[in-house]
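@channel sequence for tomorrow's demo:
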Amino acid sequence: MEEKEEKKEELSGISEPEVEKIEEVEILRKDLADLKNKYVRLYADFENYRKMVAKEKEEMLKYSNEELIKEILPVMDHLELALQHSSHEANRALAEGVELTLKEMRATLEKFGLSIISALGKPFDPSVHHAMAQIESEEAENNTVITEFRKGYMLRDRVLRPSLVGVSKKSTEEIKNNIEEE
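structure tokens (generated this afternoon):
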């Protein structure tokens, strides 16, 4: 209210058509400010969208082979089993061929970001290990991986398949001894 009165006083010596022009200019300035504000927000939204699309594209390229590699892992498991069961001297040449094939397959998949999860002797980590059994052990510390039933794999920084492991636990006698000591 006070602003209108101040403007009326300022514009009191100016003719009516000039006052209308001044008011029109003020309206246009406000419209321009609103449009500029909308433009800045729209531009910021567009930049955010562009960054999001670029990140999604990068993720898609980074993990594009994930499904293919998941399908190949059982083949690698079977080749490893074949090597474990080829102990006869007559099968040695075949075993060497399987071993070379497995080695080449691993090297190829490593080029695309596949890595083996190290499990044996490590503390149990539920983010990369899947416990299949608890095994009493006096030598190993509690909750240490002492058996690996199936290898786990990472694709870059993502767990592709957790390791299936056996985890150490204290024997029941050791637990009883600890309770009696307390």
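heads up for whoever presents: The mean pLDDT is 85.
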